[in-house]
Amino acid sequence: MPKDALEHLGNCIRNARNECGLTQQELADQTGKGLRHIQNIEKGRINPSFEVLDALIKRLGISAEILFNPDMAKQDEDIKHFLGKFMSCNEEERAFLLCTMDCMVEQIIKYRQAQPQPQDSE
């Protein structure tokens, strides 16, 4: 996992812990993890295992999607925009929109895969 992704993950964990009013020691105790381990996660020094993330997510009541997606705020806006439009349609129109969207996404994926990939320069 890239360093900036680990820093984002650590910041999310720290913010959620603070919102819960917990110290690092309390979070460590309540999740059965070590204090130093919690500290290293929050500082973005280590890539926590699935087991550790699962315990932290459950105790802090946060979404895994927030941890793994730093652009979530913009995506939330886009999703809300789409849902507003989607909800203004009747059931038949919604089915048409979903079918159209599926087709468009498949075309985008095929287009992206057909594009030449930049070569790493050393």
UniProtKB/TrEMBL annotation:
PROSITE patterns (UniProt xref): HTH_CROC1
Protein name: Helix-turn-helix transcriptional regulator
GO cellular component terms listed in the entry, alphabetical order: cytosol
Keywords: DNA-binding
Domain HTH cro/C1-type: 13-67
GO MF annotation list: DNA binding; DNA-binding transcription factor activity
Pfam families linked to this entry: HTH_3
Domain of life: Bacteria
Lineage: Bacteria, Bacillati, Bacillota, Clostridia, Lachnospirales
Gene3D superfamilies: lambda repressor-like DNA-binding domains
UniProt xrefs under PANTHER family: HTH-TYPE TRANSCRIPTIONAL REGULATOR (PTHR46797), METHYLPHOSPHONATE SYNTHASE (PTHR46797:SF1)
